[in-house]
């Protein structure tokens, strides 16, 4: 099978899409037009949420978000990167990182991180250069195209945030959820490193 030529696609996809968004050409897609999600809490009892069930729903939520992000990329005309690779762009953020820093920050597997990073560099979303201290070590940062794509995704995500958080009570619930997930991240990290779950 002939391999498709690779290279930056920003000028052919992202920039025109950004113009269409600014000009209102995608007005038919409005987050605010979606109905609130009806939650079925009949099977939930306070204080009886099993740890494993929480782990499973975290996994499902993440996979569902990748599906959502895949649809958004399609609407933007971006077909050269995957949702997981876009999330790696957000992990890099505005920093200048080593590859090791990126792997540690995103808790990536080495092989997966290497493949996704190589793809992002090939497509022009990430710039990779030799470290001034150690020519064998690489430094990575977002290119202009990578920052532009992240900005577009943030604008779309603002709409999803408004859908999920509609009043003061939901604002508080959102904050509690975030703090709970961060606490679990610390517990699981310590458990993986030291063989036990240390409270934080």
From TrEMBL:
Entry-linked Gene3D superfamilies: Winged helix-like DNA-binding domain superfamily/Winged helix DNA-binding domain
Listed GO MF terms: DNA binding; DNA-binding transcription factor activity
Domain of life: Bacteria
Keyword tRNA-binding attributed: no
Stored Pfam families: MarR_2
Keywords: DNA-binding, Transcription, Transcription regulation
A GO biological process held by the record: response to stress
PANTHER family, sorted: TRANSCRIPTIONAL REGULATOR, MARR FAMILY (PTHR33164), TRANSCRIPTIONAL REGULATORY PROTEIN (PTHR33164:SF102)
Protein name: DNA-binding MarR family transcriptional regulator
Organism: Chelatococcus asaccharovorans
């Amino acid at each position: 099978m002939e391999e498709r030529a690779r290279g930056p696609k920003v000028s052919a996809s992202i920039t025109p899409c950004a113009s269409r968004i600014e000009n209102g050409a995608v007005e038919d897609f409005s987050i605010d037009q979606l109905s609130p999600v009806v939650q079925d809490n009949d099977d939930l009892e306070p204080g009886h949420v099993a740890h494993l069930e929480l782990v499973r729903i975290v996994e499902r939520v993440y996979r569902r978000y990748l599906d959502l992000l895949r649809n958004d990329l399609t609407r933007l005309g971006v077909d050269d990167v995957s949702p997981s690779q876009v999330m790696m762009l957000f992990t890099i953020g505005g920093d200048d990182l080593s590859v090791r820093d990126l792997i540690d920050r995103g808790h990536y597997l080495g092989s997966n991180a290497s493949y996704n990073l190589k793809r992002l560099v090939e497509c022009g979303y990430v710039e990779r250069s030799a470290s001034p201290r150690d020519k064998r070590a690489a430094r990575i940062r977002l290119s202009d195209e990578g920052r532009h794509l992240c900005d577009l995704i943030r604008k779309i995500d603002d709409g999803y945030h408004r859908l999920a958080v509609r009043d003061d009570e939901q604002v508080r619930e959102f904050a509690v959820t975030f703090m709970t997930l961060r606490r679990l991240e610390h517990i699981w990290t310590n458990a993986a490193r030291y063989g036990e779950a240390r409270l934080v």
